[in-house]
From TrEMBL:
Cofactor(s) annotated in UniProt: [4Fe-4S] cluster
Residue ranges annotated for the Radical SAM core domain, each copy included: 22-294
Lineage: Bacteria, Pseudomonadati, Thermodesulfobacteriota, Desulfobacteria, Desulfobacterales
Keywords: Iron, Iron-sulfur, Metal-binding, S-adenosyl-L-methionine
Protein name: Radical SAM domain-containing protein
Pfam families (alphabetical): Radical_SAM (PF04055)
Taxonomic source organism: Desulfonema magnum
Taxonomy, superkingdom: Bacteria
Gene Ontology molecular-function annotations: catalytic activity; iron-sulfur cluster binding; metal ion binding
């Protein structure tokens, strides 16, 4: 008896996944795979109850074609400044096939964002066959030749196994930036959080991306080693990044939502979360140990205590260190005002404390919430969990 053939999956219309990096807020999202093929990182709640699957290349191309159709229609409606007549826009919406409505809205949003960049979803798109990725990139570039940047998330474990010539072919076809969740350079931390990758593999993958001529963003998670591994996490992460020299190092501080596997360990006291003060000391140690590289540090995540720790290495290193030191040298009461002000969105960085109106608002909130040395970290945790 011949083996049963799997029925081809029918096309169910344009799809988008749940997340993208903060820097891709204006990008068109094109979904190539669904969810995460690894799905075991203990801090990550994103795809927990969702099964991984590949989307047929033809379906992805159909998504691209549908968005292209609406981009063309909308471009004709827009004047030279991108403004559109509301009545005309409503007419197009009325005549849009309901099944194509998500693609229409994606096109509209992308037009508003300038049509410059595309982000390939979901969590590890490079897991598909390199020839399929080349085909998708080629199609994207044919439809949208003006696009400047095409980017994707990828796991180091996957990238490290791709042949150099395949990565290069993908780059030449259009994919020019990879976002990798490095999280930590410490093998102990990577094991603890079940990242499924070692420091060595992270370094190999990062170097391969650079060698292929792609831009590289590495995500680092301050606080991920908890109190116990904080120092090792800072030093080993800096050491890994010193060997990679990524274009961007992006900070995204640990938060532990209830849906994350780590939450149970945290509740049971098996994982001791760093206080903001400890995380600040960890970031300081991390920054002090970044040497010999030219990466751009970005702190573009709402969970970060210092959104102003940003700059290009090595020139801005001293300034970034000074920001963290300024916080660490404040008296405890002022530190608490900053922590709360930051978490309610009144401050984005230390310098915002010089604005009397903002300072008053943060102080008032501290009074209302009856913030003390004992409860400040519990309250900031609650506030942070609104964003994860
Ligand atoms: S690889 Fe990324 S998406 Fe997948 S579980 Fe880990 S952090 Fe989450």
């Amino acid at each position: 008896m011949s083996p049963k053939r799997k029925k081809p999956e029918p096309y169910k219309g344009f799809e988008q996944g749940p997340i993208r990096p903060p820097s891709e807020a204006y990008s068109l999202l094109i979904r190539v795979t669904r969810n995460c093929p690894w799905n075991r990182c203990t801090f990550c709640p994103v795809y927990k109850r969702s099964k991984f699957s590949l989307r047929p290349v033809e379906h992805v191309k159909q998504d691209i074609d549908t968005v292209h159709k609406y981009v063309e229609i909308l471009r004709q409606l827009a004047d030279e400044f991108g403004r559109m007549d509301r009545a005309e826009l409503s007419k197009v919406m009325e005549h849009t096939d309901p099944g194509e409505s998500p693609a229409f809205h994606a096109a509209l949003q992308w037009l508003g964002g300038g049509l410059k960049s595309v982000f390939i979803q979901d969590a590890n798109s490079l897991i598909i066959k390199p020839s399929d990725m080349v085909e998708i990139m080629t199609h994207l570039k044919q439809r949208f030749p003006w696009v400047e940047r095409i980017t994707s998330y990828a796991r180091s474990h996957t990238v490290a196994r791709i042949k150099d010539e395949d990565l290069k072919a993908i780059r030449e076809a259009g994919l020019n930036r990879i976002h990798i969740g490095l999280e930590s350079g410490s093998d102990k931390v990577l094991k603890l959080i079940k990242k499924g990758v070692t420091k060595e593999t992270h370094i190999k993958a990062g170097q391969k991306v650079k060698k292929a001529g792609m831009e590289l963003s590495e995500y680092v998670m301050p606080g991920l080693g908890g109190k116990q591994l904080s120092k090792e996490h800072a030093l080993e992460t800096a050491d890994a990044l010193n060997q990679i020299n990524a274009d961007f190092i992006r900070l995204r501080t640990l938060a532990i939502p209830r849906r994350a596997a780590m939450y149970e360990d945290y509740q049971a006291g098996r994982f001791e979360k760093c206080t903001d003060l400890m995380t600040a000391k960890e970031i300081l140690l991390f920054l002090e140990n970044l040497n010999g590289i030219t990466s751009m540090i970005k702190s573009d995540h709402i969970l970060n205590l210092f959104q102003d720790v940003e700059g290009k290495l090595p020139d801005d290193k001293a300034d970034m260190i000074n920001i963290v030191k300024t916080f660490l040298n404040m008296d405890p009461e002022r530190q608490r005002v900053y922590q709360i002000g930051r978490r309610i969105g009144v401050f984005s960085g230390i310098r915002d404390m010089e604005d009397p109106a903002r300072l008053r608002r943060a102080e008032k909130t501290c009074d209302e919430l009856q913030i003390t040395e004992e409860n400040v970290d519990a309250v900031t945790d609650e506030l942070m969990n609104r964003f994860v």
